[in-house]
Each structure stands twice: as C-alpha cells, then as structure tokens.
Amino acid sequence: MPARALLLVFAALCAVCQHANAATEVLGNEDVIAMAKAGLPAEVIVAKINASETAFDTSVATLISLSEAGVDTAVIEAMAGAGTATASVQVGATPAPTARSNFVGTPCATPGIFVEEDGNLHGIDVTSASQTRTGSGILSGITYGIVSTKAKAVIRGPRAMRRVRQGHPTFWFCFEEAEAGLSYQTQGAVNPSEFLLVSFQVKKRSQERTFEIGKFNLWSGSQSGTPPKQLKDVSYEQVQPGVFRVSPVAAIEPGEYGFYYAGQGALTILGAGIVGGGAGGKVFAFGVDG
Known about the structure:
Largest sheet: 10 strands, mixed
Mean pLDDT: 73
Helix content: 10-25%
Low-confidence stretches: 19-23, 84-99, 136-147, 216-226, 264-279
Oligomer: single chain
Structural class: alpha+beta
Number of strands: 21
Radius of gyration: 25 Å
Number of domains: 2
C-alpha cells in the first residue's frame, strides 16, 4: 500500500478513536459509517470489527440504511455476525446464553471434526450427500407398493481424502458454540449425539459411496434412518463445554466411513413416494486403511 494511503488509513482511525481509549473502546454503527466515509478499505474495517468489542444495531431497517450509506457488503456481513459474551437467543421467555467455546487447554484450535493420530489432530472435510432412490418404479408399481422404495445418500468418489491407519481412532468434535438454547439447537449441531457414524457401500463402477437413509412401503409406511448393519456405535465424553472426545465402541474394519449429520438429512415423503434427488445431509467422510 502506498505511503500516502497508509497515512490516510492512520488518520481515519485516529479520527474515529480519538474520543475513547483503545483498550475500552466499543465499536458502534456510527464508527463503521465514519470509517467507510473516510475511505478505509472494507478489509481494514472488517479487521477492526473482529478485533473490537461491538454494540451494533443490526435491525433490518438499519442494515438497509447502512447499505444506502455506502457501507461495503462485507462490512455489513461482519457487523451482522459480530457477537458479544452477552449475546443470547430467546427460549420462550428465558434468555439462553450462546457463549463461544473456549478451546484453551484442549487440542482444538478451530471448530470442526478431527481425527487424532501421532499426537496431532487432522481435520475431516465436510461434503454434501445427494439423495437418490432405488426399488421403486415398475417393480413397486406391479406389486402395488409391497416392494419398498429405498432412499440412499450418495457421495461422489470411491475414497475419502482423509485416511486413518488404525481401526480404533479417537475423534475430536470442536463446536464453536459452547451453549445454545432450543431455538439454535433446531438449526445446528451442538453435540456428537446428533451425528451417526456410518459405513459406506463403495461402488467402484459408478465411482461413489452410498448408505441407506430410509425407505417407504405402501403397507408398512415410511421408515427413516440408516440400517443397523451400516451404523457403528460410538462413545463420547465432554472435555469442556463445546469440546468432545469421541471413539468407536468397537474397532472398525478397513473401509469407507463418515459422520452423518442426521439433523439435515430428513427423508421427504410425498403422497405414496419418496422425493429423491435432493440434499441428503452433511457428511464428514474418512477411510480406514488398516
């Protein structure tokens, strides 16, 4: 950045902060507008927001007025996502704290699901599973619904990128939210019990991994859930709020596996059929090489 631009940035920051001590400063809407009008780049303003205590008004009307005032979209997003230690969601008439997890003293450094090997944590990437159906069509029609229609979650590729050498690995679930009220829990996971450890059926010809998430039969009705033979029991313990140590109850054989977030993979039943082709949920996939 040219020297003249650096001087402009420094002068604008001083103009915003001259009335408050930097150690006790609380950033508000007017401060953001002042920085934007002074010509500070959006990334500088976002960095200031992330490093400061904030007290933003992020009502719909105010967000619209910020946009009309020329505040960059990235800055408005940072303002809307900024939280404080006293932020809460409403559960009935009782405010429930949503304090950020404190990863200090744990192996967690960032939110996510990790596998522990050689004393280090290795991240497991999340992927989206598509949904398909089998056993329907002509055969189900001929049998008047006696033959079940199965819904399967499908992941592209026969192998996961993350490989594990041992059959009894230790996983770490590092949630960014230490506590949450019911309103939050119905939209996002806060506990390992919301994930299923499933084994995949590998189809090399079609280059994909699949597992069953439910089935529909005209006479017996619908059933959602993965068959027991594809589920692996796990145990977990809370190390501290938001941090959990998870491990399979029994050693798992070499193959392809994943933690399936069941909260997003609900089976959709419409009339007498299963609606396929939609989202099948989020999967943290890994493979055991043995």
